[in-house]
Amino acid sequence: MDDGGRVVRAEQEEDFRRFVIDSRHRLVRTAYVLTGDYARAEDLVQTALVRTYRAWHRIERRDVPELYARQIVIHLHASWWRRVAHRSERPVAFLPDVATADGTEAVDRRDQVWRAVLTLPPRMRAIIVLRFLEDLKETETAEVLGCSVGTVKSQTSRALAKLRTHLGTEAAAERAAATTRRAG
Predict the structure, then answer these.
(1) Same-domain status, 80 and 134
(2) pLDDT tens-digit profile of 45-55?
(3) CB of 28 within 8 A of CB of 46?
(4) What is the pTM for the complete model shown?
(5) Are residues 99 and 86 located together in one domain of the fold?
(6) What is the CATH number of the domain that holds 126?
(7) Average pLDDT estimate for 91-114
(8) How far is CA 167 from CA 5, 110, 125, 170, 171, in A?
(9) Residue 99: pLDDT band with limits 50, 70, 90
(10) Which residues of 99-121 are buried (b: 16+ CB within 10 A; e: fewer)?
């Protein structure tokens, strides 16, 4: 029996177990990209899997239960973000540590892009994650987020513009810092 008093068939239990084994890693990856914190990502996925289990008998599209679970992860993150936004702590665009060029340019660039993604509002970040990390189509992204395809397109465009601006500003600041270090 599940905690709602309904009998869960052994076949459904096995289906859910296989679903968790097959999709948990991808869900954690999505949650991590949304939160930037592995422990928080694990918590989001665990809660999403519990909610998915409770609704397992109601999920209409058995061929894509991962979309349902991913949608829960995104909604949980948005709810968490709204609560955190009212606290006094705020993420910062620049970390005080200065990176040095030691042959890890690709890693530095990936980190720079990652920090830029973390500056996006939760909905834009979710769209970027679903479209470019999870490689979902616009229609699939719209379905997961419960919005129109037009919203996905416009939010993607705005998010990419913000990322370009942020990354351009950050690159200019790094070039100026490097010039100052060489001159000094």
Answers:
(1) no
(2) 999 999 988 88
(3) no
(4) 0.55
(5) no
(6) 1.10.10.10
(7) 71
(8) 52, 11, 15, 5, 6
(9) low
(10) eeeeeeeeeeeeebeebbbeebe
CB-CB contact of 76 with 47 (8 Å)? yes
Residues 75 and 146 in one domain: no
Number of Cβ within a 10 Å radius of residue 22? 11
Please calculate the CA angle 117-120-122 and round it to the nearest 5 degrees.
110
DSSP 102-121: SS-HHHHHHHHHHHHHHTS-
pLDDT at residue 5 is higher than 50: no
Runs of H (alpha helix) within the chain: 10-35, 38-54, 65-85, 105-118, 122-128, 138-145, 149-183
Q: Which residue has the tokens 């905690």?
A: 3
The encoded tokens of residue 174 equal 């790094």
Same domain, 104 and 63: no
Q: CA dist 133 to 52, 136, 147, 179, Å? A: 22, 8, 19, 34
If asked whether residues 73 and 54 sit together in one domain, one would say yes
Query: Which domain does 35 fall in, by range?
Result: 1-90
Token look-up 């270090």 returns: 181
Q: Which residue's entry shows tokens 């609704």? A: 55
Residue 86, domain CATH: 1.10.1740
